[in-house]
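Friendly challenge for the regulars: who can give me the structure tokens for this chain first? No prize, just bragging rights.
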Amino acid sequence: MALTLLLPVLACLQIPPRPASPADVASLKPLLTVSPDYSTYRVGDSVTFTCLTPKGHQAMQFQFLRDGAEVDSPETQSQLPYTYNLPSLNVHDSGSYHCRYWTHGQKILSKLSDPITLNVYDEASLKPLLTVSPDYSTYRVGDSVTFTCLTPKGHQAMQFQFLRDGAEVDSPETQSQLPDTYNLPSLNVHDSGSYHCRYWTDGQKIPSKLSDPITLNVYDRLPAPTLSLYPRYTVYLPGERVTLTCSAPGRELPSGYRFFYQGQQDPSVVQHPNDSARLEVTAEKGNAGTYTCAYSRWESNREISSGNSNSVSITVTDRPSAPRLSLYPRYTVYLPGERVTLTCSAPGDELASGYRFFYQGQQEPSVVQPPNEDARLVLTAEKGNAGIYTCAYWRQESNREISSRNSNSVSIPVTDRPSAPTLSVYPRYTVYLPGKRVTLTCSAPGDELASGYRFFYQGQQDPSVVQHPNDSTWLEVTAEKGNAGTYTCAYWRWESNREISSRNSNSVSITVTDRPPAPTLSRDPEYTVYLPGERVTLMCSAPGSELDWRYRFFYQGQQDPSVVQHPNEDARLVLTAEKGNAGIYTCAYWRQESNREISSRNSNSVSIPVTDPFPAPQLTLSPQQPVYVTGETVTLTCSAAGMLTMSGFRFFRDGQKIQSKELPSPWYSYTESIRLSGVVMLDAGAYSCEYWRRVSGREISSVRSQPISIALTDPPPQPVLRLDPPSGAVSEGLTLLITCAVSWDARERRFHFYKDGVELIPGDMGSEINTMESGTDSMNVSVLSIPQASPNNTGEFTCGYEENVGGRWVPSPRSQAVTVTRNITVSAPSFLWVQKLVVGGSFFLINGLIFLISHCCF
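First reply, four minutes later:
Bragging rights claimed.
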């Protein structure tokens, strides 16, 4: 703030602050001190901070900061060092303190001093945390515990104090290791009480508040219980039940009990550990001896045990030998109401005072079923007395009853007849048709295990008249008039070699009615054999009086509607003949009646045999050319090699029949030809052929041959023949030029010259033939040169050419003839026309020669 006030003055004096050099700045670091110097302070304490400049430095102004924010910056002092006083500390005065100063003259700002941290605490917050390990709510005498006193975070303790019930129990000197602990290695009852701890801080020895208390409850062992026996005998028999009762003192509330055998105390060898106050022991030689007990209770998640009780002794002697128990009559299972006699027989040398019969293993006389002094017990088998029986005899000896060992056990199982099964029928109709499969299913209740089943017809119950005895749960019946009626069923099981039969099921009725008469099945067209792809219509005709029927068609004798071939409610079924559907077909008609389908008997069967067509023949052309010229004659020959007989041939162009020929019968030839004379463009196309043969009264055609294409072209245009000179007047010995020309196009050509109808070969009559070619290698002009004309050169001259069309050389018509006479004059039908043509040809020839020369030379 003071520095801000000085800035206008410095600006007027035009004395800008001069930054100190790095070395000066490094040395401009004051020393901050505090008095009194403690690590912690209490609220209300007074402290003074002093900012000391380095030796040789004069300070014009000082500044004090807490946590980086200015707290005081008075005007320049006349006395150094400068101090900053806090006369009464508060918690908010805590923080990190620095100071800095400005020098005289250039007002160079020093670096911050090293920090001093001021920790101011309210005494109310100085409260440690006391812990104990192990942490139980109750402890036994001899247990070991350790108390730990933990200071709050950021506090340093100089000394700790532990107190029990407000009195000091331990106050060691300052410890080198925190937190401090107080150990009780072996607890006694007098160690019980309420424990606290507190500490003193370093420096001013500020005492903290007391920690929250921990209560220590130390117990000696609980008072011993009393152990008693029932019944109390001096001697016990093997198998007798002896009850040991462990009774805690009246004020104790035990959580559980333990019984010790032969003085053993280790819980790992406790005899019959038990949470109950009673232990039932079956007297045996192996457990005769001395017993004690103890009780325990749970307090604060740990067990506190009592001292051991008095001891009791159990002495065991052998019982008399066991009797033998028998049954009459002897069954493995009994039905209610049957009489059963149990007989108890003591060994021959034993004298019995009486007998007892035991039910379900019960041994107490109060539950003997029923008590009897006689050796026999007669029972009426009922559910209430079904179970396991034993017996024993007894005699009076030493003022107590000595009972023998129990006899063998016998079982009297009593069972009701098993619950009735449920009889169901599938399919479930009110009426059935003869031949229909009907399944009767006898279903035992879910918890019953059946050994077999019986089905009864018309109420008969005697197994000897069982209808269709069957060990299976279902019975298949074919509906017929003779087995229509009412059915029931029962199931049975074997138990201990005895058959137990259930009650009878509900009844179901099977009513059988005749089927409607069979329809008539026909096919159209009516063939004995069919070819793949042919359409066949099957027609199912019900008798005339039957109306409103729907229809089904069956394939290969299948009757189940789920496998009907082409299900159809119409009376017609249209098929495309294929190898996959060749076979036998039948049909039936049906309608819905009384919520079920009534189907007629099956119709007559019809057969749809399907055969493959005959193998394809071979078609050939003569002459064989890649292309034909209109006007030529072509012969097509159809050959069916390997076939013995056939009835005729057919020829096709572009799939359309052009000729059919039926052969005389019998006919053993396998070739047939047709001749195409003077072919025209309409004759071009793809040709094929087939043959056919009559089989079973119908015509069976072969597969058609591979097609052969006939391509046609018109003859090339007629060439023009001209003479040079055009007048035809040539003196003997001079050169005669005869030119054959055709309009130019891109075709490949070969030229020919003829004299009096005979082709001239170069060299004849001293002639030369030169062919002029265009730049595209197409020939359109050829010249016959006779260097020295003579009388032998007179005659009639013509020319022609051939064109390459699709690989065939096709000849053109010959040109009009020109005649050279002995006087070397030329006659022509129209000399004027020839003259014009020769002039044009000469022009064309000259241009061609120029082009040829330029093409060859340049």
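The mean pLDDT is 80. The longest strand covers residues 289-299. Your move, everyone else.
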